[in-house]
Amino acid sequence: MNKKDKILIIGAGLCGSLLALRLAQRGYKVEVYESRPDLRKVDISAGRSINLALSDRGLKALRLCGMEEKTRKICIPMYGRLIHDKEGNTFSSNYSGRENEYINSISRGDLNAILLDEAEKHENVNIHFNKKCKKVEIEKNIAHFKDYETKEEFPVIADVIFGADGAGSSLRKSYISERKFLFSYSQNYLNHGYKELEIPANKQGNHQISKDHLHIWPRGDFMLIALPNMDGSFTVTLFLSYDEGKYNFENLTSEEKITEFFEKEFPDALSLIPNIKEEFINNPTGALGTVKCSPWYYQNKTLLIGDAAHAIVPFYGQGMNASFEDVFVLDEILCHFEPFDKLKTGSSREIFDWKTVFKAYQKARKKDTDAIADLAIDNFHEMKDHVANPLFKEKRKIEMDLEKHFPMQYFSKYSLVTFKENMGYKKAMDRGRAQDKALLNLISGDDISTSLDMTKEELEIVLKKVIKETNEILKEDKIAGL
Amino acid sequence: MNKKDKILIIGAGLCGSLLALRLAQRGYKVEVYESRPDLRKVDISAGRSINLALSDRGLKALRLCGMEEKTRKICIPMYGRLIHDKEGNTFSSNYSGRENEYINSISRGDLNAILLDEAEKHENVNIHFNKKCKKVEIEKNIAHFKDYETKEEFPVIADVIFGADGAGSSLRKSYISERKFLFSYSQNYLNHGYKELEIPANKQGNHQISKDHLHIWPRGDFMLIALPNMDGSFTVTLFLSYDEGKYNFENLTSEEKITEFFEKEFPDALSLIPNIKEEFINNPTGALGTVKCSPWYYQNKTLLIGDAAHAIVPFYGQGMNASFEDVFVLDEILCHFEPFDKLKTGSSREIFDWKTVFKAYQKARKKDTDAIADLAIDNFHEMKDHVANPLFKEKRKIEMDLEKHFPMQYFSKYSLVTFKENMGYKKAMDRGRAQDKALLNLISGDDISTSLDMTKEELEIVLKKVIKETNEILKEDKIAGL
Description:
Two copies of one chain form a homodimer.
Chain A: E1 6-10, H1 14-25, E2 29-33, E3 51-54, H2 56-64, H3 68-72, E4 76-78, E5 80-84, E6 90-94, E7 103-107, H4 108-120, E8 125-128, E9 131-137, E10 142-147, E11 153-157, E12 160-163, H5 170-178, E13 184-199, E14 213-218, E15 223-228, E16 234-241, H6 255-265, H7 267-270, H8 276-282, E17 286-294, E18 297-298, E19 302-304, H9 319-343, H10 346-351, H11 354-384, H12 390-405, H13 413-418, H14 425-444, H15 456-480
Helix pairs in contact in A: 1-4, 1-9, 2-9, 9-11, 11-14, 12-14, 12-15, 14-15
C-alpha cells in the first residue's frame, strides 16, 4: 500500500465511480476504464429511465464521500408499498413505523453522473470511456482493453486492479479461466425474467398514481411493480416466469395475448401504460441472477467489488446499496491499515500490503453480501405473494405498531436490513428471520393479541413476548449448530 | 423414447456403467465412451486402493439391476465409527441401534469392474475405452472424442446423450460454453484438501486395527480417517486446511514438519503408516468441491447424471450411493412413461418423449441431490469436530438407545439418510435436522433424562418428547415459510 501505487478500476458504473472518488479522496492515483460511452454525453439508456431504490446503507457511503446532499436532491422518497389487487383496490403498507424512515427512488443515470462529476474534480483520477476490458492477466497485473471507437486493443498495467465491472465482470471471468487458484463460484437464475414498461406523466407533467409509494401488483406467481421518476413517469417492471404458469414470457408473444393477460391480471395498470404492446414486444426480457464467489482477491494484485463480487436479484432494493457499502467497508479497512503502512519498517511493509487489506475486507464483508443475496430471494416471494397473505398482513400491522410505539426497541427485518445501516446484513438476517418466525408463530398460535387497536400496555406485552421468543429461537439455533 | 434410439453414455465410471447396464436391461441400444483405459486390464490407480462407503441407497439400485449378491461379496461391513483421541484411546459409536444396519467399505475399482462385466454381457452395449470427450454440440447431439491411443479426434452422433462423466463433466462444460439457455451453476470448494496414505496389512495379511469400523481421528479443525480394504490394508485420508491453522498443506513441506505434525496429533496412526514421508510428499493433495447445477437436461437431447450433475464432498459416504440412486429414480420415471410411449398415438408420441422423462426426473430428484450435498458439508463438521463434543456424544448415546428399543419408531438423521433408502434425502434432511435440534435442545435444557441406564419406560418418555418437539419445530418452520 503506497499512495504512489497506480490503481486501475475496471468499470465506471455506480460502484466504480464511488470507489474512484473515495480512493482519490484518500490520495491514491486512480485510472478508471469503462466499456460504455460517457452517460453524461450520450443517452445510452435510449429513452428508458431505469430507477433504483436508495436507502440508508447507500446513503452512509455517499455521506462518507461528501455526496449525500447532492444525492438527496435527485431522490423521490417512498414511504411504503401501495398494493393493488385485481379489482383495482389498493392498500398501503409502510416500510417503517418510525417517521423519517423511507427509501428513495433515484435514476441510475443521474446518480452515476454526479458521482463521475465529483470523481473527475480530483486531479489524481482519470476516467476513460468506450474501453472494454477483454481479460486480465492476474499474475502480471495487466488488463487488456479494446477501444470501441478506434477498435484498437491495448494493455494497461497497474499495481492494483479493482474489478467493479458488474455482474458480467471480466476480472471474475479471468479468475475462472486462468485457473490459478481454487475459485468457488455460483450463478443462480430465477425461473422468472423481467420486462420494463412505462407509465408516462400526465399532461401536466405530474405522477398519475401516488409518487410516495413503491407500487406492487402481487399475483402469487408473478407481479408488477412501479417506481416513480422525477419527470412524473413511473418505471414499471413485470416479473414473470419464462415458461411456467398459464401466462409466461415464452407464450406472451401476440398483442392479443399480452392485452388479455394485463386485462385479466392488472386492469388498473393497463389503463396507465399506453404503449404496452410496443413496449412489451420491443423491450428485452432480462434474466434475474445471483452471483456469489470466493476468494474475491488474488494475492496483493486484484479485488472484485460490487456486483462483480456479488450480483443479487433486485427485490430488496439493496443491490446498489450493498455495492456502495462495499466502498464504505473497504474504506474502514484502509483506515485501519494505512497508519501501520506509514511506519514503513521493513517488516510492517510486508505485513500491511494490499493482500492484507483484501483479506481483511473479504473477512469483514463476505458474510454480509451472502446474506443480502439470500434476503433478496426471500423478498421476491414476499413481494409477489406474501404481501397479500392475511397472516403476513397481520404481522406487518403489529410490526408497524411496535415500531411506532417502541421506536428504539423494535426493528422489523425490513427495518434492520434497510434502515439499520450500522448492523451488518448477516446479523440483520439472522435476527430478522428469527423475529419473523417468532411473530408468525405467536400470531398463528393465538399467543398474542392482534386486536385492531391495542393500547400501549397491550403492545408492550406483545413486544416482550416477541423478544423472548426471538431470543429463544436464536439460542436453540445456536445449540443445534453446536 | 424408442428402443431403437441410439443412446450415448459419456463415462464408464460407477454411475455410467450402472446406467449402461440398466438401460441395456430395459432394451435400449447403448454406446459408452470412457476416457480412461479399461481398469480390468490396466492398473490405473497405480497401486493405490481407493475405497468408498456403500450403503442402502446404492444397494437398492444394485438390487434393481440384479447386482446385489455379487457386490456383497466384495464388501467389508463397518458397524460404526471408532474414534481415536490424541492419547491413542478409542471409543466406538455405532451407526445404528438396530442390528443389521451398517455401511460397507468397498473398492471403487472392484465394484466398477463387476458392473462393466455385467453390462458387457448385453449385446446391446458397447464400451469404448481411452476415448476422451472434448465437447458436446448440444443442439446437434454430437459428442466429440479424442482417442488417447491413436490421437485421432472423431464425432459420435446419438439420439440421446447422457453425461455420466463425473465432477469435471465435459457435457456440463458444454452447457456453460454453448450458452444456449440460462444455466444455474455452482462450484464451491472447502478450505480443506485431502491426501491419501496407507496402513498396510500385517505380515499375516490381516488388518492391524478393527476392520469392523470406520476410524476417525477428529481434531476440531482437521481429521484423519481410515477405511478397511479386502487385502488387510486401510486407506487413510487426511483432511486438512490448505492455508489456515498451525499445520496446513501449504506449510507441511518438510519431512521433519510432517513427522512433527503426526507425532503430535496422530501418534497411534503414525506408528501404523510406515511410508508416511514418501506418501505425504508424493501423493497428490486433492480438492474438496461441491457442484450443483440446473437444468440437468437440454431439450430432449442430453442429461447430466451422477457426479456430473451433483458432485458432493465425501463426508456422508453418499457420493456413489446418490449416483446409483439417480439410476434407480430414472428407471422409475422410465417405468412410468414407457407404457404411454408404446401406445404410439400421434399426440402421446410427442408428449412422452425424452424431454418429458428428463423434466420429470429432475423434478423428482433435484431437491434430494441438493439436500445430500448440504448434508455432506454438515457431516464434515460432525466428523472432524462434533463427534468429540460431550453434548453430541450424549445425543448419539440416546439415539442408539432409542433405535435399539424402538426400532420401528426412531431413526436418527444418520439412519434416515443412510438406511431409510425409500425416503428421499430432502425429507431425511428436514426431519433429521429438526430431530437433532430437538434432541440437543432437550438435553442442554435438562428436559430429558440422560442417565446412563434408562429403563424402557424412561426411554419411551424421551421418545415422546423428542417426537413432539421435532414435530413442533417442523410446524414452526412451515409457518415461518408461509
